[in-house]
Amino acid sequence: MNLAERVEEIFNARFHRQPMLVRSPGRVNLIGEHTDYNLGFVLPAAIDKAMYFAIAPRTDQVCHAVAVDMKEEYTFAIDNLQKTSAGWPNYLMGVVDQLMKAHYSLQGFDCVFGGDIPIGAGLSSSAALEAGLAFACNRMFQLKIDPLALVKAAQKAENEFVGLQCGIMDQYINIFGQPEQALRIDCRSLEFTYYPFHHPRVAIVLFNSCVSHSLASSEYNRRREECTEGVAMIKQLFPYIASLRDVSSEMLKECQSKMTPVIYRRCKYVVEENSRVLKACAALEKNDLTSFGVLMHQSHEGLSRDYEVSCTELDFLHSLVEHNPHVYGSRMMGGGFGGCTINLIDHEAIEATQRTVTEHYKRKFHIDLKTYITSIGAGTTLMHGQ
Ligand code: GLA
Q1: Which of 110, 170, 246, 306 is labelled catalytic?
Q2: Are residues 184 and 256 in the same domain?
Q3: pLDDT grade for 324, boundaries at 50, 70 and 90
Q4: Which of 75, 238, 267, 332 is 20 to 30 Å apart from 204, CA to CA?
Q5: What are φ and ψ of residue 200, in 5° steps?
Q6: Atom of ligand 1 nearest to the CA of 32
Q7: 62 and 164 part of one domain
């Protein structure tokens, strides 16, 4: 029995009726880290790992949610949403909260969800929960919300209810992902372009450090503030700029003396990363994975040295493959302070690379590395039901 069938069977046993089934994927980000909330460019893709929702409406205001993988249940009322220390229910309640605030006509629902997106690995299991539920409610209650508005509601759920000031990338790719396509999102105009990513001899391999340092969310919000501070300083010389997206390396250099070294390095990273995304897209158009990979390595260096969101474990994983001729590129991925590195590796070298990396990582940190060989899949879809 596959994961979707299992989730559906648990729903049937628990709620005794036929649910709608929705698949909501995790994501990778090929390049463009911490650029989304600076209104720059990102290049994510939806993956083959996903969360499955079996869900059906109720006639009252109550929501029963069952988290299969955590073996937990939570009940809440759509007209009385209170943040909980239980963690995952906040993502669901956050979405309901947004839909209620936008005056959509909702009822309660019964819902069972579970899947194979590892939690805390930086593959956006939280966005899969938010955007998956937003998509399901849209269908189930026929709300006629357009896809971009769904994305925004899911992001706001995380900003306002969960309290992480995340950008729009994760929820966006969750809804707009397509098989074998990376998606370049312009996070200022919110326009997007698909870039075919089909390289039969190369695989996207994720090495999960299996650490997730507790400072991740506080440091994330702090980086946002530091960037805002940087923008305020740059504005003194260039009043017309609205975000780091509008800043060039030359402009930044002119402002360096007005900034603390830390703020300067944060801004420098973002400005350079934005230009790397554009170069990476140009490389993809030419099928040039070698140049693409070099940009990934540079992205890691910047994240580690200038933006300071990496950690010893991720730096070590990167250093192990950095000079491996079978690895085109490697970098830490997502918010940072743990989770996975993303690596582009020749198929024939995957096994040997995985073995070496696993051994070295174990020896140094006494942690069993996890490896996922992923492929690029579809964004959130209705599997059956309404
Ligand atoms: C998290 C956030 C995204 C993005 C990345 C860093 O995944 O949810 O919005 O900022 O970190 O690129």
Answers
A1: 170
A2: no
A3: very high
A4: 267
A5: -55, -25
A6: 12
A7: yes
pLDDT, position 92: 98
Structure confidence at residue 120 (pLDDT): 86
- Known active-site residue 97: no
Which residue range(s) make up the domain with 145?
A: 3-196+377-384
Strand 109-115 to strand 62-67: parallel, antiparallel, or no bridges (unpaired)?
A: parallel
Q: How confident is the model at residue 34 (pLDDT cuts 50, 70, 90)?
A: very high
Q: Is 338 in the pocket of ligand 1 (CB under 6 A)?
A: no
Q: What is the pTM of this model?
A: 0.97
**Structure tokens, 306:** 């200038």
184 and 214 both lie in a single domain: no
Confidence (pLDDT) at 124: 95
Same domain, 108 and 177: yes
Tokens 């040997």 found at: 352
Task: Answer whether 223 contacts ligand 1 (Cβ < 6 A).
Answer: no
What mean pLDDT is predicted for residues 229-255?
97
**Residue 169 belongs to a domain with what CATH number?**
3.30.230.10
Distance CA 357, CA 348 (A): 16
Q: Distance of CA 27 to CAs 127, 256, 285, 322, 357, Å?
A: 9, 35, 21, 23, 23
Q: Is the CB of 216 under 6 A from ligand 1?
A: no
Q: In ligand 1, which atom is closest to the CA atom of 168?
A: 9
Is the domain of 154 the same as that of 281?
no
Q: Count how many domains the chain has.
A: 2
Residues 325, 183 within the same domain: no
Nearest ligand 1 atom, CA 33: 12
Rounded to the nearest angstrom, the distance between the alpha carbon of 322 and the centre of ligand 1 is: 24
